[in-house]
Specification:
It is a single chain. With about 475 residues, this protein is of the alpha+beta class. It contains 15 helices and 19 strands. The longest helix is centred in the middle third of the chain and has 16 residues, at about 255-270. It starts with a helix and ends with a helix.
Length: about 475
């Protein structure tokens, strides 16, 4: 706050100077003194305004005033809308197909500018803030069922941070352009392969996808890659179809386009497609999380004053993320919509807030959109706790070490992790690391309740609060 105040003073320095000049002129009896005094007075009053604006941007506290006002998108409890940066235009002859990510590794991500905010013009993701990733792909060039049309290719591609989860999930939508050979010396690769990142996020299941048919019946097609690819090809041939949130309503489309969508739906009903896994096998070969910047995961620190005054942790969920043209070194600045569930049992509410989202969290966005907030004791404001959020999301392994020294992994048990976080917070016990070692002295008093939580006895943990 003090730094922002100093910045605001410097920016508004000419106006307070006018106030001083006006005061001197008034002492000298000059008639024009009141003009300079008025300008200076306005400047002095205006200094707090940019100060508060800069502070709110750097410390994004969520309050009731951030309640969502735009209700044009009906958000369900499992809805997630993702508006990623647009991909570069492709040639008409390029074929839209699926590619499996077999291996991935981070080649380079080294933006300049430190922890400050950097803003660019245009709708594309700038290279400076777009990780360069080396991937080995298996491309399904042709019908999804034809094994003979598959080939492998390796290359380096810029991956927008909002679409990193598609790499972790292992499913991409790519364009194969036969007019631009990838490697003339390798005839097995029929053309240049270019990932289409917004469609990849859809194919990977990061963004949810629904279709409303001509009779008004909704169908969830999330993680049904065969049907989704067929729909994407129809959309591409039609010049693009805008989704309302995560939904395509056939009643609003051109009749010819709607008929093609209906044919795809009938084909799917005749031969139902199994839902693809959240993550394709071999995730460890494409795990970029450890190489990406972001808050280190942990059970989190606890401020004793916050805990004594009744501060609590609150669970929320992202409903929407929209790319902006502003970035920080550890993640993009996004326009987000969250559904917050207050700890006092009052109805959940949706809030819209611009947040910097760390890249290591974005890389597992296909798994979870949950987020941990710590609430002010009065319950009127919330702040995202990225350390706890990342632990709940599984960016780092979470472990409990029993008093006997046995290690108990709890990484894939988010409800247990959530119970442990609340237990520690209620007792004012800080544990910034992702490992709870019950052999250590601060943890000894809570070891019984911790073991109850690990064994699944959440009721015992609830009784231990207070």
């Amino acid at each position: 706050m003090i730094g922002n105040l100093g910045c605001a003073v410097i920016l508004c320095l000419p106006v307070p100077l006018a106030f001083l000049v006006g005061y001197s002129a008034w002492r000298a009896g000059e008639d024009w003194a009141w003009i300079a005094l008025a300008i200076g007075g306005v400047g002095l009053v205006a200094i707090p305004l940019p100060t508060l604006r800069f502070t709110r941007r750097a410390f994004p506290r969520i309050t009731r005033r951030d309640r969502l006002k735009d209700r044009s998108i009906p958000y369900g409890d499992d809805t997630f809308v993702l508006w990623a940066p647009r991909s570069e235009p492709s040639s008409v002859q390029a074929r839209l197909v699926r590619a499996d990510v077999l291996e991935a590794s981070l080649v380079r991500y080294d933006p300049e500018g430190g922890a400050g905010f950097t803003t660019y013009g245009g709708g594309l993701s700038p290279d400076e803030f777009t990780p360069l990733v080396r991937m080995r792909l298996r491309v399904h060039d042709g019908d999804e069922a034809e094994v003979a049309d598959r080939f492998e290719t390796t290359g380096e591609w810029r991956v927008p941070s909002l679409c990193l989860s598609a790499v972790t999930a292992g499913r991409l939508a790519v364009l194969v352009d036969p007019g631009r050979p990838a490697d003339p010396a390798d005839p097995r690769v029929p053309g240049r392969v270019t990932p289409h990142w917004p469609r990849s996020a859809l194919l990977a299941g990061t963004r949810t996808c629904r279709v409303i048919d001509l009779d008004g019946r909704p169908t969830d097609v999330t993680r049904r890659p065969v049907r989704q690819l067929r729909q994407m090809r129809i959309s591409r041939a039609a010049g693009g179809i805008e989704m309302t949130g995560d939904t395509t309503d056939l009643r609003r489309l051109d009749p010819a386009v709607a008929a093609r969508y209906t044919a795809v739906a009938e084909q799917d009903r005749a031969a139902p497609e199994d839902r693809a896994p959240v993550t394709e096998p071999g995730e460890e070969s494409r795990w970029l999380v450890d190489s990406l910047p972001g808050e280190a995961a942990g059970f989190g620190p606890v401020g004793r004053r916050w805990s004594r005054r009744g501060g609590v942790l609150v669970r929320a969920r992202f409903l929407q993320m929209t790319a902006t043209n502003t970035f920080q070194s550890h993640g993009p600045v996004l326009d987000t919509v969250l559904r917050i569930h207050p700890a006092d049992g009052t109805p959940a509410f949706d809030a819209a807030r611009r947040l910097t989202v760390p890249m290591n969290y974005l890389a597992v966005l296909h798994r979870t959109r949950e987020v941990v907030l710590y609430a002010a004791p009065n319950g009127r404001s919330f702040v995202v706790d990225w350390a706890r959020t990342n632990l709940l999301a599984g960016t780092t392994a979470a472990t409990v070490i029993t008093p006997e020294g046995q290690e108990l992994p709890v990484t894939e048990r988010p409800d247990v992790i959530w119970a442990l976080m609340n237990l520690l917070a209620s007792r004012g016990i800080s544990n910034p690391a992702p490992v709870l070692d019950l052999r250590k002295r601060p943890m000894s008093a809570a070891s019984g309740a911790v073991m109850d939580a690990v064994r699944g006895s959440a009721s015992e943990v609830g009784a231990g609060r207070g």
